[in-house]
Amino acid sequence: MTMHENEKAQLNAAAVEVFGTMYYTPIELLPELPASDSWHLDPQYVKAEIGYRGPLSAVLCFYFPRRLAISIAGAFLGMAEEEIVDSQLIDTMREAANMIVGNFLGRIDQAGNCTLGIPAAEVVAGFSPEAGPGEEIMAFTSDFGLLWLVHR
Amino acid sequence: MAFTILVVDDSETMRAVIKKTVLMSGVPIGEFCEACNGKVALEILEETWVDVVLSDINMPEMGGIEFLQEVKQNEVLKNIPVIFISTESSQSRMNEVASLGAAAYVKKPFMPGQIREVLLEVLNKAYAKRMAEEVAITVPTEEGETAF
Q1: With a CB-CB cutoff of 8 Å, which residues 77-106 of chain A face chain B?
Q2: Distance CA A89, CA A101 (A)
Q3: pTM of the full predicted structure?
Q4: Stretch B120-144: mean pLDDT, rounded?
Q5: Cα A87–B36–B12 angle (5° rounding)?
C-alpha cells in the first residue's frame, strides 16, 4: 500500500512537529529514497511500530538509528547520553512513534473514526531498506543518520 | 497548600517528563503518584487523596476514556479534575472527552508552558474557594512573580 502525496506531507508535518517540540531535533522527509550507495546504515536501530484501523488503516514501523535514539532520549529525559539504558531508549522511541502517528492521524482523520493501536518497540541489529510486498519505505534526514519508516 | 498529582501514562519516560514539567511549573506539589494505566490509577485513587489527574488516553488494559467514566460514576471521586495529555488530537475525540467531563485536554507534543497554564487554570477553578482561604500560590513567570 503506497501513501498519497498529501498523506506523506501530513506525516512529515507530524514528525517535524513532534521532533521539534519534544526533542529539539530537526528532521525532514526525503522526497525520494537515497541511492543505495548513500544509505550509510547503522549497526543498531530502535524499531518502533504502531498501527491504526478504521476507515483508514496502516501499520507504521520506524527504524531510529541508535545514535539518534540516544540523542533524543537524552534531550527528552534531560540525561547525559552515557547514562541512558536500553529500556529508556525503547520507551522513548515507542512514545515518539505514538506521538508522530497520533499527530498524523489527527491530521488525516479529523472526524476521529480511526483507532490508534498500542505501540511496541525493541532494539534490533541492522535494517535493510528493501520494501516487501505491500510496503513502502521512506526516509527522514537527521543530524544522527537516516530515520527509516516502513509503511504497510 | 500543596497538591497531590496523579500522572497516568503507559510510558515511564513520558511520566518522568510530565513530572519534571509540573515540578518546574511552580505549582506547589506535595506528593506525586504514578500509574501505568487506568486500572492502576483507580487503585491509587481508592487509597490516596489526589487533587488532579493528568492522564494519557491510549493505554493498555484500561485507557483514559474508560478511566474517566469510572471516575465520574464514583460519588467519592467524581469531582477530581482529570486533564488529558494525549496524542489523539481529532476534534471529535476532544469533544468526546469534554462531554464525558474531562477538565482539559493538552495535545502531545506539548510545550512545558501549556501544561503549566492548563494545570493552574484547572486547579484554580476546582479549588478556588480552598485556595482563597490559604496563602496564595506564587508562580514564577518571565515578568516576575504572579500570585494565584
Answers
A1: 77-78, 88, 91-92, 94-95, 98-99, 101-103, 105-106
A2: 18
A3: 0.85
A4: 66
A5: 30
